[in-house]
Write a structure and sequence with these properties.
Strand content: 15-25%
Structural class: alpha+beta
Order of helices and strands: HHEHHEEHEEEHHEEEHEEEEHHHH
Helix content: 40-55%
Distance between the termini: 26 Å
């Protein structure tokens, strides 16, 4: 469903409908498909009133039924709950209908506040393709076997928001985080073009900015984890960079992180070599970064234990 259709559906909902969606969201903690009787009991309203609301939202494709007596939210319903919260907080007032980017795990749209400030809204959609693929590199999900798509998307968003917050405080060139709710992150709108779409006038300077950003990240024990020419924006006039797309970040002292760091560097160095003839060896860059790379790597369960507790307490 397009964001225009999501907003159109949102405008059709009553306060009661929004309350029903919120109650179903709460009950998803215990049920994949929520029994209607539990919604009735939770809201202390008649079954007739609740079923009328559910039927309406089923037609709007905000709910999926399993039999006559069980329902679950869809991503558009979760989008509506997130948009509603952002609107109530005064973060956004309007959303552009055309996406800035659509990927397997997220959709990004431009939005404005009532005061005219412009933001990028990132809707996380972990699970749209495959939960199993996300588990390969989302170590913070752990071994939870009954986790829902709702919970995974929410954790992904909170992880990205946390990385943006820490990186922004460290003056790494990232979008300034503005707000978060559920699976939706609002951040500064960046006037930039993806690196792969740009022909640089000073590629040496841009490459140096990228390596310097990696250094600054290592100082706060962070590795981006998916750094490439698609996740770096370049300002068309100043050629200043901004690094985006952070859900897959990892701590620099976790087992396997050095391999991921070298993969990031290899991708960037190959890009600049093939497109601009800059022949800089990874050994030279790793030598420069060596003082900032942790001397030992720890098991993920040890490094992430406190972080996982923190994230799960935020999203539960």
């Amino acid at each position: 469903m397009s964001i225009s259709n999501v907003v159109a559906s949102y405008n059709e909902l009553s306060k009661l409908d929004l309350r029903v969606l919120r109650v179903i969201e709460v009950l998803h903690r215990n049920y994949e498909y929520v029994p209607v009787r539990r919604i009735v009991k939770y809201m202390n309203l008649s079954e007739e009133v609740i079923n009328k609301s559910i039927s309406k939202m089923n037609k709007l494709k905000l709910l999926v039924r399993r039999g006559p007596d069980n329902v679950r939210l869809t991503f558009p319903a979760y989008d509506i709950l997130s948009i509603h919260t952002m609107v109530k907080r005064g973060v956004i007032d309007a959303i552009a209908p055309t996406p800035l980017g659509v990927g397997k795990e997220s959709d990004v749209y431009a939005a404005e506040s009532s005061s005219g400030d412009k933001y990028a809204l990132k809707f996380h959609r972990i699970g749209r393709v495959s939960f199993r693929n996300t588990r390969k590199y989302r170590v913070w999900i752990g071994e939870r076997r009954h986790i829902t798509w709702l919970y995974e998307a929410k954790i992904s968003a909170h992880m990205e928001y946390m990385a943006l917050t820490e990186a922004y405080r460290a003056k790494v060139p990232v979008p300034k985080p503005r707000a978060i709710t559920r699976h939706l992150v609002a951040m500064e709108y960046i006037n930039g073009i993806e690196l792969f779409k740009t022909r640089l006038s000073n590629p040496e300077s841009v490459l140096e900015q990228i390596i310097s950003a990696i250094e600054d990240l290592l100082r706060i024990n962070i590795i981006h984890g998916d750094l490439n020419e698609y996740n770096i924006l370049v300002n068309p006039s100043s050629e200043k960079i901004t690094i985006i797309d952070w859900p897959q970040w990892m701590y620099a002292n976790v087992k396997g992180s050095k391999t991921i760091l070298m993969r990031d560097l290899n991708i960037i160095l190959r890009y600049f070599k093939s497109n601009y003839g800059l022949n800089i060896s990874i050994d030279a860059v790793m030598g420069r970064l060596a003082p900032l790379i942790p001397s030992s790597e720890l098991p993920p369960e040890k490094v992430y234990s406190r972080l996982i507790k923190r994230i799960t307490s935020l999203v539960s």
